[in-house]
Amino acid sequence: MNWDFPRPCLPAGRLPLSPWGRGRGEGEEEHMEWGMRNRLAQLIQSDGHCLFLPIDHGYFQGPTRKLEKPGETIRPLLPYCDAIFVTRGVLRSSVDPEKTKPIILRVSGGTSMVGKDLSHEGITTSMEEAIRLNAAAVGISIFVGSEYEHDSLMNLSKLVDEGEKYGIPVMAVTAVGKELEKRDARYLALSCRIAAELGSRIVKTYWCEDFEKVVSGCPVPVVMAGGPKVDTELEVFEFVHHGMQKGAIGVNLGRNVWQNEHPVAMIRALRAVIHENATPKEANEIFEQEKIK
Fold first, then answer.
1. 66, 165, 182, 204: which one is catalytic?
2. Over the stretch 233-254, which tens digit does the pLDDT of each residue have?
3. CA 200 to chain centre
4. Whole-angstrom Cα distance, residue 49 to residue 251?
5. Rounded to an integer, what distance in angstroms lies between the CA atom of residue 17 and that of residue 22?
6. Protein fold of 32-231
7. Where are the domains of the chain?
8. Which of these, 21, 201, 234, 244, has the minimum number of CB atoms within 10 Å of its CB?
């Protein structure tokens, strides 16, 4: 089977961005270990942007709607994403090793939606396991301001130590548990900066009002995890476009894609925003055209 993945399109006049972080000193990229540079280059494309597809929701939510059979869900979406965020169990059971994209391995967990506190996570997967599964990166949640803040930040620090030892980047996820009201710029800027200070190579966080305050205070690349609850595809394209204009390098969107009634049309439209500088209106037109195919 011929898998011809679409190449990122660099708009005229846009210079390629560094995938190795913002605010780094000149020449620092050259001093990064080859393995670390190579893995980051797999995730962040030559235009400096990325589209990650998370399917790790089951690690605390169980069989999420439209993700009951993750292999079937992602199969038509793989040509249009740059990496998938997944647990080792679903990776082994549901992702074809001959037809995949770079892997960001979810390595934290140990809690559930029916448990007492989602923030009481631990590290569930070793770095040796990540190496065995050929992961391009590992991802872990941090819960700043929660009862288990210290535990989650120490988990991140230990994971960074292991990742740097083997050349595997760590993506920190600024989780808020069930307290969705924490998704404001002041809190997210604090969480992202702490994640960067502790050594994360990429930070995944929520879009919010005044998003530029979040990005400007974070010296490593920021990827958007999601935004406000919206009713239309156009509103998704609007907050993604806004976040990209304010400095995010891409998205890590799952439910907005695979829970949509037209997931392939949705991911193709998002890809246009991220890699082709499409406006929300242009992305919506792509969505409308693709969904009738």
1. 204
2. 999 999 999 999 999 999 999 9
3. 13
4. 9
5. 9
6. TIM Barrel (3.20.20)
7. 32-231
8. 234
